[in-house]
Amino acid sequence: MHKDLESNSTLIIGIIALTTSIASLLWNIIRDLILDKVSIHVEAEAGTVLPIAGITNRTMFRSSDADKEIQIKDPKVVFFITNMGRRSILVSKIGGEFKKKAQTNIKTKPYWILHTRELPKMREPYETLGEYCDDKVFMKDVKNNELEKVFAEDSKGKRWYINKKGMQRLYLTVSKLDV
Prior knowledge:
This protein is an alpha+beta fold and about 180 residues long. The chain contains three helices and nine strands; from the N terminus they run αβββββββαββα.
């Protein structure tokens, strides 16, 4: 009788250990394959970069729709790239696609790549990078609604696009500039 009780309790402990191990294994698979994705959030808006009084080598960004009374003398488009995933990622470039197709036999749409000062750069989780562009031709293309998509590209070639609401914000802020 004592031996039967001992083998039953051993069996129960074994079943509990097996169940716990399977649950732990499933959680690790779910976490690694589903929840642990790389993700970049891209935003862009127009405004100007101003020095911060009393602090050297630091600037702040002021959006063109922040204060309608201030005339922006040196307009820029600022791109904010945030790593929203749980792993580090190398952001390699900022670019976009035009709405019109090229007048050639190539079936892809023409695109542009922004010359940046900071990229390529490794972004840690939830870290944001701000890059700006002061190219007047680019701003006129935005103002004339010639851009279809704006993206940041990682080192693996994956493009992370600005969403529709973000593109509307870019058009709105650039439309208030005098370019």
